[in-house]
Design brief:
Largest sheet: 7 strands, mixed
Number of helices: 0
Number of strands: 11
Radius of gyration: 14 Å
Shape: elongated
Distance between the termini: 40 Å
Structural class: mainly beta
Helix content: under 10%
Order of helices and strands: EEEEEEEEEEE
């Protein structure tokens, strides 16, 4: 019953801002990390931003200073605020949640993805 639903994608012009949201439901185990990945046509899926338990964040070098990841531990949501968007930011953005139950290995869940297109 675990489900991740992304929203906020769209078509914008370079230099614009966009906010992506991901709502997680059906998760009964501890969330150890939440993150955003993206995949451009013909390229590998890459990590964009990650936030782990304790609040530590990691960003891809290409988005540092432009993107900000945040989470709401009560609502089990994770957001990605994107600013100064560039055409190379274009791709399908996927929400990922890592969970871990006691005495069990970690498990990952993925959303269906939301398209972000940045025009020149």
């Amino acid at each position: 019953q675990v489900q991740l639903v992304e929203s906020g994608g769209g078509l914008v012009q370079a230099g614009s801002s966009l906010n992506l949201s991901c709502a997680a439901s059906g998760i009964i185990f501890r969330i150890t990390a939440m993150g955003w990945y993206r995949q451009a046509p013909g390229k590998q899926r890459e990590l964009v931003a990650l936030i782990i338990s304790g609040g530590t964040t990691n960003y891809a070098d290409s988005v540092k200073g432009r993107f900000t990841i945040s989470r709401d531990n009560v609502k089990n949501t994770v957001n990605l605020q994107m600013s100064s968007l560039k055409p190379e930011d274009t791709g399908v953005y996927y929400c990922n949640v890592e969970v871990q139950a006691q005495w069990r290995p970690k498990a990952n869940y993925w959303g269906q993805g939301t398209q972000v297109t940045v025009s020149s």
